[in-house]
Amino acid sequence: MIEKKVLFEECKKARELACAPYSNFKVGAVVVLKNGELIHGANIENSAYSLCICAERTAIFQAYLKGYRKNDIEAIGLIGDSKKIVTPCGSCRQVMSELLDLKTPVYMFTVDGKELVQTVEQLIPFSFDSENL
Ligand code: THU
Description:
By secondary structure, this protein is an alpha+beta fold. Helix content is 28%, strand content 23%. The longest helix has 12 residues.
């Protein structure tokens, strides 16, 4: 299990990778793998705003592109610089519900040290999934 302090520091490093010239709101995310590997993600924006992608999804998609799957993932962390803790948007929650185990902890930090931990299932109860199709 990764130490929370280490995850916090890695999330801050991930945040520096953000490309957020429109919102100026940088978010970092880190997928923690059970093998100890850390996969960093950050939000990347576009002038066609709807094409912006959140930090959480860039990290999760990278993990999948490296061949990892939900059973390889121990946790995910994210961080933003705001008074209120940054919680994942609805799209990221849906992606988390399918690409992470529902019991996976989601660590949410602010750069000034506030934190909240919830499982994916707590963030998106009764999620739509393949069994609903
Ligand atoms: N954003 C994230 O990357 N993750 C979140 O959990 C919330 C929002 C990004 C999207 C956009 O680039 C910027 O923050 C402002 O919404």
